[in-house]
Amino acid sequence: MRPGETAGVMLHPVEILAASLMVAKWAGETVLSALNRREIRRHAGALPPALAGVMDATTYAKAVDYSLARNAFTRLEDGFGLLLLAAVVFSGVLPWSHSAWSALAGAGHWSEAAWLVLVGVALALPGLPLDWWSTFRLEARFGFNKSSPALWLADKLKGGAVAVVLGFPILWLVLALVGWTGRWWWVWGGASVLVFQLLMLVLYPKLILPLFNTLTPLPEGELRTALLALAERAGFRARTIEVMDGSKRSGHSNAFFTGFGRFRRIVLFDTLIAQLDAEELGAVLAHEIGHYKCGHVPKLLAVSAGFTVAGFGVIAWLALSPGFLAGFGFGPAAGVAPALLLFALLGGLATFWLSPLLNGLSRRHEYEADAFARAAVGSAAPLVGALRKLSEKNLTNLTPHPWYSTFHYSHPTLLERERALTAPQG
Questions:
Q1: Which stretches of the chain drop beneath a pLDDT of 50?
Q2: What are the C-alpha distances in Å from 299 to residues 303, 366, 391, 402?
């Protein structure tokens, strides 16, 4: 038996720790899901008085059914993912595949990077049936899915190809830095990933997003003139506002801000334009501009930088820790690649408990962007109207349990946003 094992128990101490983290996350998610499901059913008969008028009775009943269906599916998806993770981590398939690949492809940074990419692709495949079911059964049942099997398959193939094309070079660079820079490789590795993230902010809307969606400038007309004038008044000079054909995949609507500096752009879903009037669209545009004017992009990049560098520091420490790689079946000379993979697989079990902090920061940014939009358009009414319409069209869960939203919602609930928007100004 290995150190720390007892008769009939074939787990190394680090495996016991990993198993404990898995059980803790599963238990936490189970409790949160049960609380949320109970809260949805508690309000299933009628909307809370503060939200009266957001949806009619028929639509609200459909929203309740959709929320409960998504809740059940998420529990199934999470449970499957946890079982898959346990099977991969504890079965010995990872060290076996590493040894087999090394014997076949030889040693070297490119070989290690290729192994990581291959494992990533292999781990993505088992989840495809669930993704298909979510799209063509669950979302279709509630009228949201607009995609076709051919488009869904094309998206998966293109998404996988993009992940490989982008992932392999950055993985190769990180692994090469171990040999080039010695014990401080993790600092340089973290810095390289941060540069890559900044580059993606610029390249994503230009090179990657067009592979999946068509972006077109908002056509000339009263709406374009009004929105550009609003952007100018709000201090955001934009040459154009782009419209994305989100309707070819889903009935859900959205808007987002991407890039920075001269590369910044605001994108509106075509479904959003179809659902809101000009005044409400102006409020949504002002909200997105608010994210830019309040400096949310650099703030989030700073948080990401901190987590990235800290994560690489942990990986470097784990790679040198006696027994860590051995505890999962890897040999003493396995190198950094297995530590990188294990951190990627297991890190979420620990960072899950940090979700309230990260979501709290995101929600704070949403409140700030809402306040900016209210000031930009001169009233809270247009944004409140837009949020109410979007909640109705997207069958939003209007009554999530507070603990569930704390762990899972990056945006405040509709009621929370309305209260903040309509509160007296101090």
A1: 1-8
A2: 6, 13, 28, 26
DSSP per position, 257-275:
EE--GGG-EEEEEHHHHHH
Out of 368, 370, 392, 418, pick the active-site residue: 370
Per domain, the residue ranges of the chain are 11-426
Beginning with the edge strand found earlier in the chain, give each strand of the sheet holding 242-244 in spatial order.
Answer: 215-217, 242-244, 265-269, 255-258
pLDDT the model gives residue 262: 65
Residue written as tokens 């609507």? 253
Q: How far is CA 173 from CA 114, 117, 170, 181, in A?
A: 12, 13, 5, 12
Exposed/middle/buried for residue 345 (C-beta within 10 Å: 0-12, 13-18, 19+):
middle
288 is catalytic: yes
> What pLDDT was estimated at residue 263?
64
From the list 29, 288, 366, 418, the catalytic residue is 288
> How does strand 242-244 pair with strand 265-269?
parallel
Helix or strand holding residue 255 (H, E): strand 255-258
Whether pTM > 0.85 for this model: the answer is: yes
How many Å from the N-terminal Cα to the C-terminal Cα in the chain?
Answer: 68
What is the total residue count of the chain? 426
**Rounded distance between C-alpha atoms, residue 309 and residue 192, angstroms:** 10
pLDDT, residue 8, reads: 46
